[in-house]
Amino acid sequence: MRAVTVDESTVVLGIETSCDETAASIVMGGSDVLSSVVATSIEQHVPFGGVVPEIASRAHVELIVPVIARAIEEAGIADTRIDAIAATFGPGLIGALLVGVSAAKALALVWDVPFVGVNHLEAHLYAGLLEDPDLEFPLVVLLVSGGHTMLVEMSGPGRYRLLGETIDDAAGEAFDKVARFLGLGYPGGPAIDREAAFGDPEAIAFPRAIPDSLDFSFSGVKTSVINHVRKHPDVSTADVAASFQTAIVDSLVAKARRAARQVGAKGLALGGGVAANSLLRDRWVEACDEDGIRAFVPSRAMCTDNAAMIAAAGWHRLGSDGPTSLEAGAYPGLRLSMD
Amino acid sequence: MITLGIETATQVVSVAVGGDDGVLGMVEIAQGRRHAETLAPAIEFVCRHAQVAIGEIAAIGVDVGPGLFTGMRVGIASAKAMAHALQVPVVGVSSLDLLAHPLRHTSKVIAGVIDARKGEVFYAFFLPTPGGVQRVTEPRVGSIEDFNADVMARGQDVLAVGDGACRYRDELDIGVEVADLAHPSVASLVTLARARVLRSDLEALRADDVQPMYLRAPDAQINWSVR
Ligand SMILES: [Zn+2]
Predict the structure, then answer these.
(1) Of the candidates B73, B80, B209, which has its C-beta nearest A57's C-beta?
(2) For FRET with B222, which of A113, B45, B120, B124 sits at 20 to 30 Å CA-CA?
């Protein structure tokens, strides 16, 4: 294997296939995004109200090479310029992960460059650094998606501590379930976001956070929504959506602020698909302004699953740990390795 | 011309490289069922010990199933990515063809039979021809009863091959003999892929999208249509 010095000129091809997005990206020096291509099979999952693993895997195997080819073409570089291949190897859907990992290892073999297995959750944390490499540590990151809701202290690149996480549903899961119950369709996050724009966020007081803890719980809010609508069948769906969204965002922002105060964070960063929610983005910035710390809100494209964050995390991992063995597999239940 | 064969559609992972005079190196791992972990190191190992540089590979053959969905995808994603990076053609060959091809010297009808789980098998019938076999039925998925009925309808002695034939050995019709061979042959894959590349227009092969042969709708879609 060719020896790799990881520096500003190191070019990494990132590959992401953990869920329904097939993505590839070329990133130089861990932060300079030369291209980022994302294809999705989401439309095929809509009738089922959730991602169907077998459908996602079938789409990945069709899309993977064209998406990689386009990422390289859009970056305007020769194949020989690629110094390493990084691919998500967990957590995620096993059949979906294996497509990206297999393609990545095959390319690494042919081009004789290192393969780097990337933790998808760690990559979401890097999404923040990608658009703002000068961000100062310590930093508190709220990682909030359909599969995860966690507050993480990042004391430096690759150094994390879990401060709190959900004890039941992930926030994105709560959005999906409530949207489905209200007949707003799938995926639930954007559907609730749209509907809430027409409603009164203070119309109904749904329960908020568990006090005295940095952990989250969303199943109580979800149950209150269902009970409220059953008791008041004529209630405005927009009011329910707006009030529910406010309850979720309130608890996310309140816990994140408390976490930031607790660890003396210099900034608060958002990551994950739910970070695309309009209300959460607005409230995040307001809260940080009030507390005199930096708000970091990645672009919507960087919040949702993409391969630029995989390439960036891969660049850091390659620098700190070196290449991953070609004998590595995919690890659906992979966790963030904490300090 | 160096041809690489990748076979991951059943429990086995096998890899071979072939040259103009036949197979140069081959590895077959029958236990473990860790396709993704085994495949890339196996390709690296076979090429290194057969003294073939990866850059010399001029064609890739891959088993496209039917078989284990996840295993098939590991092989197909790897083959397509390698072919793209090497700028060489990739050829898809069915697992059933790769079961039948090594038995081409028999005089019986050959049945490739792969365990499809859920009490079913993937199968197709073949006739030996000079120098090879010819598939005479479309690959299909069905119960052992379906398979037996198809054997009866043919009214000929059948030589069945594959992990499905082995698993359901005791339930097969009289007149069906089961070959000891259980796995698609990667040596046949190299031979068949090489032959196809040599007689095809390379541009057509390069554009050819190698598709997995699932023969079954994804689970969720079946549930939906039942609802
Ligand atoms: Zn994600």
Answers:
(1) B73
(2) B124
pLDDT of residue B175: 84
**Burial of residue A132 (number of CB atoms within 10 Å: 0-12, 13-18, 19+):** middle
Does the interface predicted TM-score (ipTM) exceed 0.85?
A: yes
**Architecture in CATH of A11-126+303-321:** 2-Layer Sandwich (3.30)
In chain B, the domains with their CATH numbers are 2-95+184-226 (3.30.420.40), 96-178 (3.30.420.200)
| Tokens representing residue A333 in the block | 């239940």
Strands lying side by side in the sheet with A32-40 = A32-40, A21-28, A11-16, A84-90, A115-119
Cα of B15 vs centre of ligand 1, distance in Å, is 34
Paired with A121 in beta bridges are none
Distance from CA of A14 to the nearest CA of B (A): 14
Which among A98, A107, A328 is the nearest to B74, CB-wise?
A98
Residues B84, A68: C-beta atoms closer than 8 Å: yes
Tens digit of pLDDT for each residue in A236-268? 999 999 999 999 999 999 999 999 999 999 999
**A28-43 burial, b if ≥16 CB within 10 A, otherwise e?**
bebbebbbbbbbbbee
**A78 backbone dihedrals φ, ψ, rounded to 5°:** -85, 150
**Residues whose Cβ atom is located within 5 A of ion ligand 1:** A 145, 305
Q: What is the percent of chain A with per-residue pLDDT over 70, rounded to a whole number?
A: 98
State whether A94 and B70 contact (CB < 8 Å).
yes
Give start-end residues of each CATH 3.30.420.40 domain in chain A.
11-126+303-321, 136-298
User: What is the spatial distance between Cα B86 and Cα A171, in angstroms, rounded to a whole number?
Assistant: 44
Calculate how far, in angstroms, residue A57's C-alpha sits from the geometric centre of ligand 1.
Answer: 16
